[in-house]
Design a protein that fits this description.
The protein is of the alpha/beta class and 264 residues long. It has one domain: NAD(P)-binding Rossmann-like Domain (Rossmann fold). 48% of the residues lie in helices and 16% in strands. It has nine helices and seven strands, in the order βαββαβαβαααβααβα. The chain has a seven-stranded parallel sheet with strand order 3-2-1-4-5-6-7, with helices on both faces. Helix 1 links the parallel strand 1 and strand 2. Helix 4 packs across helix 6. The chain is globular. The termini are far apart. This is Coniferyl-alcohol dehydrogenase. InterPro entries: NAD(P)-bd_dom_sf (IPR036291), SDR_fam (IPR002347). Pfam families: adh_short, adh_short_C2.
Length: 264
């Protein structure tokens, strides 16, 4: 995979920054995109606001193919008053940007979407995800948020539910184009926005982190994303990888009373 041409959104900090640094250290050419310019070296940087259709279009014009991999990391945390931006950036803009890049992706390219453990309520939210996916205009999105009583926490969860389901929905169609798509769902990660999640999800998140022993690190998430971008993961298509330090296992064991399976 050396000398591959990789595009990473959300490159300014957190997981996106660590992924860009990791990929470049392995000999790849990395183009980073973000609303803010990174404070480290990249092969190329393009400014983009994923909540803006015109900004996405301008960014796409600046990207040259063929592209070997795309990692959609950019996201907005659950902050008060940002419901529209959260849904635009975390899913609708992500999807628009990815579709716009399709013709520049070379055969065999890998697409990796950063979802979240917060999206694991998708089974109960499929219909709402479908309604969100049908939104086409800013006015329609405002109406959707109002009619469905979407607060910041719900906006974030919904956006990640949509990313997980969209990844699966696209898999067969992408196979016909020689492309593949997977997602990664981290639990709590020690980045600058961890406090936003603490405020939004409160004691539940705190208990999960305590049981896991610590939050994850951006480097750990970046390693998994890099694996999914590489040919080594070539048979992985349409899957979501939980990366949560055991949080999902704890909660499933509690819910199903699986302690009875243990020897002691």
């Amino acid at each position: 995979m050396n000398n591959s041409n990789i595009v990473v959104t959300g490159a300014a900090n957190g997981v996106g920054a660590e992924l860009c640094k990791l990929l470049r250290s392995r000999g790849h050419r990395v183009t980073g995109l973000d609303i803010a310019e990174p404070k480290y070296d990249l092969d190329a940087f393009i400014r983009v606001d994923l909540s803006s259709e015109s900004s996405i279009a301008a960014a796409l014009e600046q990207l040259d193919g063929p592209i070997d991999g795309l990692c959609n990391v950019a996201g907005v945390p659950p902050r008060q008053g940002l419901e529209t931006t959260i849904l635009q950036v975390n899913f609708l803009g992500l999807r628009r940007f990815t579709y716009g890049l399709m013709d520049k992706l070379k055969e065999g390219a890998s697409i990796v979407n950063l979802a979240s453990r917060a999206g694991y309520g998708w089974r109960e939210a499929v219909d709402q995800v479908k309604r969100l996916a049908a939104v086409r205009t800013a006015q329609e999105l405002e109406t959707f948020i109002r009619d469905e009583n979407i607060d910041p926490a719900r906006a974030y969860n919904l956006s990640k539910e949509a990313v997980i389901l969209w990844t699966q929905a696209e898999t067969e169609a992408l196979l016909a184009r020689g492309l593949r798509m997977n997602s990664v769902s981290p639990g709590a990660v020690a980045t600058d926005i961890l406090d936003d999640f603490s405020r939004a999800f409160g004691d539940k998140m705190a208990r999960n982190v305590e049981r896991a022993g610590r939050p994850g690190t951006p480097e750990e998430v970046a390693e998994v994303a890099a694996f999914l971008l590489s040919p080594a993961s070539g048979w992985m298509k349409g899957v979501d990888i939980p990366l949560d330090g055991g949080m999902g296992a704890f909660n499933l064991s509690d819910a199903l009373e699986l302690s009875a399976l243990r020897l002691s």
